[in-house]
Amino acid sequence: MSATRDRPDGCGPVGADVVSRPVVESRTFGEWTLVSIDAPTVASVARPGQFVMLAVPGAVFALRRPLSIHRVRGDRIALLIERRGAGTRRLADMAAGAQVELSGPLGNGFDIGSSGSALLVAGGVGVAPLQFLADELRARRIPSWTFVGLRGETHLPLLAALDLPAQTVATEDGALGIHGTVVDALEASPASAAAVEKGAVVYGCGPLPMLFALRDWASVHGLTGYGSLEAHMACGTGACHGCVVATTRGYLRVCADGPVLPLEIIGEAIVTAGGAR
Questions:
Q1: Could you tell me the domains of the chain?
Q2: More confident residue, 86 or 25
Q3: Half-sphere exposure of residue 104, counting CA atoms within 13 Å on the CB side?
């Protein structure tokens, strides 16, 4: 297949052919399932922060689901799926040997070219794209710190699906780590102070309120960074304009202009919750 087509402005891929690929492994961690798919052409060109669109098995008229690429291992891509509704449950229930239609990689990924060190901040299943990023940073020997925020005890199984460096955990119910939000953890942890001292680039993914708080925290500490937005998507290529979000640069499409955007341009706007994760 032809994995991607370049945008006319040269800013990255806008689309990909739809192909049917086999599921090779499925592992469940509480409310989340890690699904590995044999997709060599996607794996060979994917960048951290990009996503794929998956067809829901057996749902002819359902929209495809955008899912961040969680990890790349050889010819395989791994996707971290949260069981939210009927569609994501069907995707999470795919067993080894099942065929799934997908397109990708799509969207624009994280810019890591100038990173001397990195601070990774995730809210809930926002860890999905940050694992791929952490793997790339590790391969480049770029020092990094990771902060993961979870709602509470029922979400702790998610941690077993991760392989993140220097991990600090915050839970809103105090079940593990720092009691509070992930940005509260940034304020309280010596690890974030070390990251600030080194001028680390901030990379975040999670709900909009978390990204707003992270944007403000980074600004106060003089750090630049990027946030990966979540949104419902219909096409995944920018054609339908169904995932538009307000920024300081005007309205942008999460799927085609993002999902990764500079933190400082993310505006106080509401985009439909859920989506690319």
A1: 5-106 (2.40.30.10), 118-265 (3.40.50.80)
A2: 25
A3: 36
Which H or E run includes 12?
none
Q: What is the pLDDT of residues 160-176, one digit of tens each?
A: 888 887 689 999 999 99
pLDDT grade for 4, boundaries at 50, 70 and 90: very low
Q: Quote the tokens at residue 74.
A: 């050889």
What residues contact 227, with CB distance under 8 A and at least 6 apart?
203, 204, 205, 211, 214, 215, 260, 261, 262, 263, 266
Distance in angstroms (rounded) separating the CA atoms of residues 259 and 132: 15
pTM: 0.86
261 bridge partner residues: 227
Contact 166/84 with Cβ under 8 angstroms?
A: no
Which two structure tokens, joined as six digits, stand for 123? 């809210």
Query: What are φ and ψ of residue 265, in 5° steps?
Result: -100, -5
Please state, in angstroms and rounded to a whole number, the distance separating the CA atoms of residues 198 and 81.
34
- Nearest CA-CA partner of 150 in 131, 168, 184, 123: 123
Q: Return the residue matching tokens 């060979």.
A: 44
Statement: residue 256 has pLDDT above 60: yes
